[in-house]
Design goal:
By secondary structure, the protein is an alpha/beta fold. The protein is built from ten helices and seven strands. The chain has a seven-stranded mixed β-sheet with strand order 1-4-3-2-5-6-7, sandwiched between helices. Helix 1 crosses helix 4 and helix 7 packs across helix 8. The longest helix is centred in the N-terminal third of the chain and has 16 residues, at about 35-50.
Length: about 230
């Protein structure tokens, strides 16, 4: 299955943008949506159901990298499809509590769209959970390209490069916004402007800071101000 899916707002070749910034790629969980708590909860409920053990948030977080499909295939290879189905049912039901983007995110996306900056998501989420998150949040309309994760593990460097190739843009005209240290590392390796999203309660500020991002945003307003100032890279 193709990992890059055009959702909406396809680029028509007619946009002009006099900002230095030509494209922004976002992570989803903990960056656009406060959805990490629901991920932890649904993984915990699923694993309790199938393994009869309570997993902590940190244990679940340590599993991240592969998509949900990959995590369940590794943990429960004989019943991973049932586990995934159970997880997605839980995720869909619970997501209604976390369906609103972080305050200011829609304003930031609207501002970027007004300024003709191209928008994408590169995330480790599987395609089915991504669809649930975008459907509940209503954010799908903003993004031209969405790249979901692989069951074999995260490779955001490759995924970012694929988006750049599709857009025909150089790395020095694009930013990546993410809430984890790996996001910043991958963005820097791909050569794009690395923005640390430190506004979630689940964000680990000191770890993000230690990665020396191009810009660290303790709140969404900081990101908005950067866009208003011209998105200089």
């Amino acid at each position: 299955m193709e990992k890059i899916a055009i959702l909406s707002n396809e680029y028509d070749g007619g946009w002009e943008n006099d900002m230095d910034l030509k494209g922004v790629i976002f992570d989803l969980d903990g960056t656009l949506l406060d959805s990490l708590p629901v991920c932890y909860s649904c993984f915990r409920n699923t694993l309790k159901h199938y393994v009869d053990r309570d997993f902590s948030d940190s244990e679940i977080r340590a599993m991240f990298g592969p998509s949900e499909e990959g995590i369940f295939k590794k943990l429960l290879p004989d019943s991973w499809e049932d586990c995934l189905r159970f997880y997605l049912e839980q995720y869909d039901k619970a997501h209604s509590e976390y369906d609103r983007p972080f305050p200011g995110i829609k304003d930031a996306l609207e501002l970027l769209r007004e300024r003709k900056v191209r928008l994408a998501i590169v995330s480790g989420k599987g395609p089915k959970s991504m669809e649930i998150s975008l459907r509940h949040s209503g954010l799908g309309k903003f993004f031209e390209v969405v790249v979901t994760g692989s069951e074999h593990g995260a490779n955001k460097i490759y995924d970012t490069n694929q988006v750049l190739k599709r857009w025909g843009l150089s790395p020095d005209s694009v930013a990546y916004v993410g809430d984890m240290a790996y996001d910043i590392s991958a963005a820097k390796e791909a050569g794009v402007f690395a923005i640390a999203a430190a506004w979630a309660g689940t964000a680990e500020f000191e770890k993000l800071k230690a990665m020396k991002p191009s810009l660290i945003c303790p709140d969404v307003e900081t990101l908005i101000e950067w866009i208003k100032e011209g998105g200089n890279l």
